[in-house]
Amino acid sequence: MNNSVITFPLPANEPVKTYLAGSPERVALDKELERQSKLVIDIPIIIGGKEIRTGDTGEVRCPHDHGHVLATYHKVGKKEVELAITTAMEAWKQWSQTPWTTRAAIVMKMAHLLATKYRPILTAACMLGQSKNIYQAEIDSACETIDFFRYNVHYASKIYAMQPKDGDGQLNHTEYRPLEGFVLAVTPFNFTSIASNLCMTPVLMGNVALWKPSTTALLSNYYLMQLYKEAGLPDGVVNFLPGSGALIGEVATASRHFAGIHFTGSTATFNTLWSQACAGLGKYVSYPRLVGETGGKDFIFVHPSADAKAVATAAFCGAFEFQGQKCSAASRMYIPKSLWPDVLADIKRMAAEVKMGDVMDPANFINAVIDEASFDKCKSYIDFARQSADAEVVLGGNCDKSVGWFVEPTIIETSNPHFKSMEEEIFGPVLTVYPYDDEKLDETVTLCENTSPYGLTGAVFGRDRMAVESITAKLRYCAGNFYINDKPTGAVVGMQPFGGARASGTNDKAGGEFNLIRWIIPRVIKETLLSPTDYRYSYMK
Ligand code: NAD
Question: What is the pLDDT of residues 494-539, one digit of tens each?
Fold first, then answer.
């Protein structure tokens, strides 16, 4: 038995590559984009390392070119989900006993493979399948995914090192056991890194997983499965189950071995899964761990002392990068009337400069939204604003689905702080702005606090630091990630552990110790060196 004490020091963040024309990374990426563009791959279900094809298939298409089929995939039925549970529980016997340093070594190898051989593969798949430009794909499917691997290993080493003190004549230690069952990882379309992390965090801590990938992120997610295998992850530790989330959720939460859910997606879906888990109570071996990061209605609050140019840049990037499909994307803004004309003019200038289109053209800053349902949803909010007396579309608003699901960066200006799009999550490139009277600062801060059920991200802008301090204090519960003079997106692993409370989730902070702790059940062991042989208290002797 290897008895080394291995520590994993705090890693550096994976550098973001530039992809300048002619750079090695750009040459490799272009080649890979061309290769993947020409293929129509067949994505199987993977259970216990075996590929299963049910023949009940769906298609994966490019959102920016929906006539282009990238892959077909096979959907699971009840039988396959049940097989996945049995297989995962079989794998659990060995994986849950595997030394944590071996598990860590496999995860570190995943990071290394992704930083090298798999980088162009995942980046290209993320661009084509999820419609991200080069930069957005690089920071997601390469950098953040690698960071999650490396940082989680470091945090795991800190957790395992946390031990109770010994007493007189006794030795104490904590054994950090994996959960007694399987974890259901249900993942969203918008971040490949989140998809990977929702499986790999529990797995690093010794758990096994059923992975329900998002149907609209299957291409990159399937390549992740190949990466895991090549890194040495034993078969059956992660079981890949494309198909209906409703079916998978229902069968998984009905199992006695259901030990937890690691979810990112909409609040409504998490609520359904939570209810199903409650309905199963009494049946499970242990109380399941329910960890979910959900929706948001993220805000920018601008104080009259703010720098208009900084606000405009933050609003533009925070609301429109990756078509506003980041859970942290700015979707409502409160701005003093004195600043709004300058800020709007600057945003209009940026919008006039950027291009929208296919990811294959690196000049395109904006690409497509993920699918037709998302396109229709964005359009319905824009149409609603156009027909409303208390709102006006002051930027963009055009939608075109003839080739891809394209929605222009759009700003709705409203005089009603409770306007529909000030309150509801749209999850697209639509920012609603409420210009307020400069002298009504305090009541507008209160509005910002009370308007939305969510609590994910928010930002305050102002050069008056004392005013910023007071707003930050008043908005204490509005956001789990709060920014001062910066856009509310772009959290980096190790720097801004991410997550929100209220209707935005359980706030277990992906990319930090808090999250890892959810996937273990500690056993504290006390060993008495000389066991007592007399029941009497000292003074009775
Ligand atoms: P979604 O809820 O539609 O889907 C998420 C996953 O759940 C998908 O894999 C889907 O197939 C599955 N699913 C759907 N219905 C299900 C059911 N009844 N039972 C089990 N699984 C089911 O979300 P999405 O469209 O993929 O992602 C967008 C949402 O995710 C937004 O609300 C966004 O705010 C949120 N999000 C939050 C964070 C965060 O950190 N808070 C991060 C990313 C995305």
Answer: 999 999 999 999 999 998 899 999 999 999 999 999 999 999 999 9
| 8-state DSSP, 539 | G
Q: Quick one: what percent of the chain has pLDDT higher than 70?
A: 100
CA distance linking residue 322 with residue 126, whole number of Å: 12
Give the residue from 124, 112, 176, 13 showing the smallest Cα distance to 513: 176
The answer to whether 43 touches 72, Cβ cutoff 8 Å, is yes
44, pLDDT greater than 90: yes
Q: In the chain, helix, strand, coil percent, each to 5?
A: 40, 25, 35
CA distance 423 to 368: 24
- Out of 327, 378, 399, 478, pick the active-site residue: 327
Residue (of 187, 192, 233, 194) closest to 210 by Cα position: 187
pLDDT digits (tens, 9 = 90+) for 338-365: 999 999 999 999 999 999 999 999 999 9
Q: Tell me the average pLDDT of the chain.
A: 97
Give the H/E segment covering residue 471.
helix 465-474
What pLDDT does residue 1 have? 66
Closest ligand 1 atom to Cα of 327: 34
Best mutation site among 76, 198, 214, 498 for ligand 1, i.e. most ligand atoms within 8 A of its Cβ?
A: 214
Structural contact between residues 217 and 189, judged by C-beta atoms closer than 8 angstroms: yes
Full-model pTM:
0.97
Structural domains of the chain ordered from first start: 24-294+505-525 (3.40.605.10), 298-484 (3.40.309.10)
| pLDDT tier, 434 (very low <50, low <70, confident <90, very high otherwise) | very high
Ligand 1 mean position to 195 CA, how many Å?
11
CA 217 – ligand 1 centroid, Å: 12
Instruction: State the pLDDT at residue 541.
Output: 87
- Token representation of residue 95: 């994986």
Q: Are 151 and 176 in contact (CB under 8 A)?
A: no
Which ligand 1 atom lies nearest to the CA of residue 276? 19
Measured by CA distance, the residue closest to atom 19 of ligand 1 is: 246
Q: Which of 269, 297, 372 to mutate to test the pocket of ligand 1 (most atoms within 8 A of CB)?
A: 269
293 is catalytic: yes
Both tokens of 90, joined, read 């079989």
The predicted-structure confidence for 108-144, as pLDDT tens digits, reads as follows 999 999 999 999 999 999 999 999 999 999 999 999 9
Closest CA to 237 of 214, 262, 189, 204: 204
Question: Which ligand 1 atom minimizes the distance to the CA of 191?
Answer: 43
> Is-contact 179 201, C-beta < 8 A?
no
